[in-house]
Design a protein that fits this description.
The protein is of the alpha/beta class. It binds adenosine-5'-diphosphate (ADP) and zinc ion (ZN).
Amino acid sequence: MTCPASDIRSTARSASAIGSTLAEVFGYAEFRPHQAEIIEHVIAGRDAFVLMPTGGGKSLCYQIPALHRPGVAVVVSPLIALMKDQVDALRANGVAAAVLNSSLSAEESAVVLRDLRAGALDLIYVAPERLVLDGFLGELARVELALFAIDEAHCVSQWGHDFRPEYVRLSVLRERFPDVPMIALTATADEQTRVDVVRQLGLDGARVFVTGFDRPNIHYAAAYKGKPAAQLAEFLRERRGESGIVYALSRKRVEQVAQRLRAEGFAAEAYHAGMDAADRSRVQEDFLGDRIDIVVATVAFGMGIDKPDVRFVVHYDMPKSVEGYYQETGRAGRDGMPAHAFMLWSMQDVVTARGFIDAIEGEEQRRIEAAKLAAMVAYAEALSCRRGALLGYFGEEVEGACGGCDVCDSPPVTYDATVDAQKALSAVYRLGERFGVAYVVDVLRGAATERILASGHDQLSVYGVGGEYSRDEWTSIIRQLVHRGYLRVDVAEYSTLKLPGTARAVLRGEEQVTLARPPAPRPKAAAGRSRREGARAARTLETPEQEELFERLRELRREIAAEQSVPAYVVFADAALADMARRAPRTREEFLAVSGVGAAKLERYGDAFLAAIAGE
Ligand code: ADP
Ligand code: ZN
């Protein structure tokens, strides 16, 4: 077999050379924003700090320099499962890559070390704890080094959310190998973390490359939980056969939702920390191999998942912070194809989260967590562009409407809700601030429940003043009043509604209140789209023939992946299959023109896929 990777090393290191590597080895026609710049910077032997959103294409930023610089590139990555998948993907492209970590047997490690010493490797992926061992550093000192790449570099900082003690010792690299260029990469880093990473790794002179946090191919939507099971089912119905993750907060809920989805005929499995390791890794592998479509999981699932064709991420419960939400939804659409983030949330979610925060000991910490929760609620409640609310949290501005979120799809109608607010606040007042939302709504609507009649609340002046609205509509109005600060939910006291000082001005008619018209109960992302259109849009295919071919190619990919025990995307990403379905290549040349097909994949899979396309 030809090995394009080693040919490349002997060719000129010019800008057009990195373009040829992109095309011949990786099968892509164009660089993503910043990639070419970063690659050339590193090839020139300089340090770089790269902050790029998930799916931005960080890997190529060190993989291409690894092929263009003499010697072996050492890649540090925190997760063993990820390393293996990355190396499998590189090998499928004909690149000489290997992994060295605790999952290998002694014999396997010996082979890798032999290849390393012989200069036969372009890239070696190493776990941080292995890298800093004296013995291994000694090995590295004896071979030519192309570069060091530190993936998930935020793990080095205590400020970050994934601090890993073994990353701290990576500072030794700069001391021992001052002349080897280093590139640190991460998808999440606030300013403090960024400064810390640069200091810890000794990257003071490094050029910083920051690509924005926006993920333009992800559509964002959120809906208030009415009937969550039905809302989820409706969202999923038009996405049958697509890969996705559904996050829920508790193990119990994860189990329930997974079971319900299976009952509805979805290939779904549960994943949470309470399952044993073997079951968890089976679920993970089945997901990567496209044998199951949906994983219902607690947040424990995801760090080890590097599946580029995840088409949707659903939050069945509201997450605790925008950072967490951004990271979790970031697992959708890494391949750049259209993807969906859909969140369900309820006032109960907010109340529960607030309960946890109130139980935190330190006052400072409590304040921080409360601020994070408030930002999350603001996102959920957003009445203007939701992407703007999300990116605003990271200090990025979105100008005007993004056109890729539910709010932009159908902007909410606001109205003067002063009278409604007065009714609700008076009811809370007349009821002595001793009741929760459901009861207040019943009184407003004039419900003749036993409890209301027994307490004589049907005699109150506010009884039945809100008969024009449904229960859901009143709940929405009260919820909005809570979030605007005109009402407060007392978690410590059975979630009863209280009147804060701000309520007085409204009750006296001194302050006007504008609210959104209560939302329709169905998820907006799904509005007006048939399942077929939805699926087609997700893959940008144009005709039923193309769709049919896409499905056949997917089936072939599934078989090949199972046969070779690699994740399906290692064979071809969704984006490549879609392009293949669109072009329907007949010859090897035409096949090579498909995005994601390089020389190695043409050799390895060309015949099988060409045969499938020809209908053989
Ligand atoms: P990150 O590490 O930044 O999350 P990856 O490096 O895994 O992202 O890249 C995400 C996906 O995008 C992968 O499937 C990768 O092959 C693909 N990709 C990267 N660069 C390009 C490009 N220039 N053109 C097309 N696809 C690309
Ligand atoms: Zn928008």
